[in-house]
Specification:
This protein is mainly α. It has a domain at about 1-30. Helix content is about 20%, strand content about 5%. It has 1 helix and 2 strands. It has one helix spanning about 30-40, and strands spanning about 5-10, 15. The radius of gyration is 15 Å and the shape is extended.
């Protein structure tokens, strides 16, 4: 099994190896849904349009894999 880093939950800031759970990087389903609600309400947003140079250095990443 892979070693997962200790990270802060983006919603509540609790620390843990959340990528080892079904909700990573969030610590729980609740925190994941709170974050999703912020995107729906416009509280979270992308500050500027993405440009090709934003993707430089990521060309070699696989794109055909399911992230789950």
């Amino acid at each position: 099994m892979a070693d997962y880093p200790i990270v802060k939950c983006p919603t509540c800031a609790r620390k843990g190896d959340w990528f080892n759970t079904d909700f990573g990087p969030f610590c729980s389903k609740r925190c994941r849904l709170v974050d999703l609600g912020k995107w729906f309400e416009g509280e979270n947003k992308i500050s500027e349009p993405l440009r090709p140079e934003h993707f430089e250095g990521f060309e070699g990443l696989p794109t055909d894999q399911d992230p789950e």
